[in-house]
Design goal:
It contains nine helices and five strands, in the order αββαααβββααααα. It is of the alpha+beta class and 185 residues long. It has a five-stranded antiparallel sheet. The mean pLDDT is 87.
Length: 185
């Protein structure tokens, strides 16, 4: 069962951080660790977490915290908004869980269609998705657990297949392509 848990938490697209009463990290999955390498948790997250623990101590959780708490934040080095959803558990514990999701540009594209149209491999599509989401080559390499040179090789292949010369031209082309198609979703 532990192997299944490790796999699920390691691969899930949501960052998960679990805090104890002292706001010490009890658990952080891989996605959360990658987030924390790039950014700091917003102060609002730690403030809400402290309020939750205070409310649990005073046995006033239901009056103080109406339910799950959502915090949206834009970071300077990210083109996307980040959503932090805070949940808590009184027993066993108490503990607070923070779920981190990036509102990503890649979700606005039909990447399967682009993949088929330009005959991209699945891995090239994985790399392109992360480029669209504003990640640097080193971050892509770390997230996909490949060498940075491999990321560069995939990008060269993508540029050649799509007919562009660099990351900026790729983004411009894809945004133009998306603008000429009906909106998704």
């Amino acid at each position: 069962m532990k192997d299944i848990e490790a796999f699920v938490f390691g691969k899930m697209p949501t960052g998960v951080i679990v805090f104890d009463r002292k706001l010490g990290v009890l658990f952080a999955n891989r996605r959360a660790e990658l987030f924390l390498k790039r950014f700091r948790l917003p102060n609002e997250v730690t403030t809400v977490s402290r309020r939750i623990f205070d409310a649990i101590t005073l046995a006033r959780v239901k009056e103080t915290i109406p339910g799950e708490v959502h915090i949206m934040k834009k970071f300077e080095d990210s083109p996307n908004n980040w959503i932090f959803t805070v949940h808590f558990c009184e027993e066993p514990g108490p503990f607070v869980a923070v779920f981190i999701v990036e509102e990503s540009l890649s979700n606005k594209f039909d990447l399967a269609k682009i993949r088929m149209q330009f005959r991209l491999t699945r891995r090239e599509t994985d790399v392109m998705r992360r480029v669209l989401n504003g990640m640097k080559n080193t971050e892509i390499a770390e997230e996909l657990e490949i060498a940075e040179q491999t990321v560069k090789d995939y990008l060269s292949n993508i540029y050649m297949k799509i007919g562009v010369e660099n990351r900026f031209a790729l983004m411009s082309f894809l945004l133009t392509l998306a603008g000429s198609e009906p909106a998704r979703g």
